[in-house]
Amino acid sequence: MSLEFLWYIPNQVEPGHRGDDTAQGHNSLERLTELARLTEDHGWGGALIGTGWGRPDTLTVATALAARTTTFQPLVAIRPGYWHPAHFASASTTLDQLTDGRLLINIVSGQDNLAAYGDAEGDQAQRYARTKEFLELVRRLWTEEDVTFTGDYFSVTGSTVAIRPVVREGRPHPRLYFGGASAAAERVAATDADVQLFWGEPRDGIAERIDRLKRLESELGREHAPLEFGLRITTLVRDTTEQAWSDAEAKVAKMADGQGFRDPLRVKAVGQQRLLELADRGDVLDDNLYTAPGKYGGGGAGTTWLVGSAEDVAKSLRKYQDLGITHFILSDTPYREETIRLGDQLLPLLR
After folding, report:
1. Measuring CA to CA, which residue among 340, 336, 322, 250 is closest to residue 290?
2. Rounded to whole angstroms, how far apart are CA atoms 259 and 8?
3. Chain centroid offset of residue 22 CA
4. CA–CA gap between residue 269 and residue 124 (Å, rounded)
5. Cβ atoms within 10 A of the Cβ of 48, count?
6. C-alpha–C-alpha distance, residues 253 and 298, integer Å
7. pTM, whole model, 2 decimals?
8. Angle at alpha carbon of residue 248, lines to 22 and 207, rounded to 5°
9. What are the CA-CA distances from residue 281 to residues 258, 292, 340 (Å)?
10. N- or C-end of the chain: fewer Cβ atoms within 10 A?
11. pLDDT tens string for the chain (351 positions)?
């Protein structure tokens, strides 16, 4: 199975995301286009573009960047509820056609400021039940005509999306990435996602989750191609192991001085809690998984870091690959410099 290596492009309201050094024009089309083109020039397949109410709209950003690139694959994070399935099926397949099949989708079910855009949801079970309906309906709208569907959360009658996704062998529509560590989330991934994304947990934890998801695929009766697995993590690479750890510790010391940030909505997530609890096992797990950032901020992919020389980090990523991980979404800041450094130094060791 082929490997996919993606980067991360921030679309934040405020500059300085995770220590990035761009302030003026950090959200400008010129700066974001530069980052997207750097991924093309330095070996990346594309980049994840995050979502959250108040941030620049992810699909709009992706459309602008796709228009200014040639191979860049935007992995567009979207939320059920912010989008109705039919609206999203139409908008996404239009972008997929315009880019000749470069679109990737990341479904996010974590909490958000729902009331700000007129959305509401119940408990965790209801949230993931709605996500499951969303995924089922979007797949049908992408691939069928005259769709009629009545669910607990969404419905359409006689719906046909006239513009179809680009179809290739093994690609009936844009790939659907999905995150979530709760039992409810894993049941959705096992039946309805294409790729389950994991945060940077130790390998034993990820191996356990892969085994459980494979059992769920069989128990729940998956109808699609087998579920694939991905890793979303910060990778701090320097020319030497010693320099990497010196810089990593300096970054954490700066976070400890009060410059870190922890999203109160994200902290409630099961996956985030798993990451935060890792620090109780030690500051460094496995060979070079640094847990200390989670004590002072971080959040999500910034909670744990793989630290070391390019050879050190490549060795660790290959061990994740041995577990069955085939999709890697990496990042570090400053984004511009690290897109180049990791693309030139790390990716050749992984291919």
Report:
1. 250
2. 21
3. 22
4. 10
5. 25
6. 12
7. 0.94
8. 105
9. 23, 11, 33
10. C
11. 689 999 999 987 776 777 777 878 888 999 999 999 999 999 999 999 999 888 899 999 999 999 999 999 999 999 998 999 999 999 999 999 999 999 999 999 877 777 787 777 778 889 899 999 999 999 999 999 999 999 999 999 999 999 999 999 999 999 999 998 899 999 999 999 999 999 999 999 999 999 999 999 999 999 999 999 999 999 999 999 999 999 999 999 998 887 554 444 445 577 678 787 887 888 999 999 999 998 887 778 889 999 999 999 999 999 999 999 999 999 999 999 999 999 999 999 998
- As a whole number of angstroms, the distance between CA 56 and CA 50 comes to 9
Q: Which two tokens stand for residue 262?
A: 């922890």
The rounded distance, in Å, linking the Cα atoms of 306 and 289 is 5
Report which of 4, 28, 227 is spatially closest to residue 102, judged by C-alpha positions: 4
Nearby residues of 235 by Cβ (< 8 Å), 6 or more positions away? 305, 306, 313, 317, 330, 331, 332, 342, 346
Q: How many residues appear in the chain?
A: 351
How far apart CA 319 and CA 11 sit, in angstroms, is 31
Locate 137 and state its tokens. Answer: 């309906």
- 93: which 2 tokens? 């397949």
CA separation for the pair 208, 32 (Å, rounded): 37
Q: List CB contacts of 169: < 8 A, sequence separation 6 or more.
A: none
CA distance 128 to 89: 19
Q: Is residue 235 a contact partner of residue 81, using CB atoms and an 8 Å limit? A: no
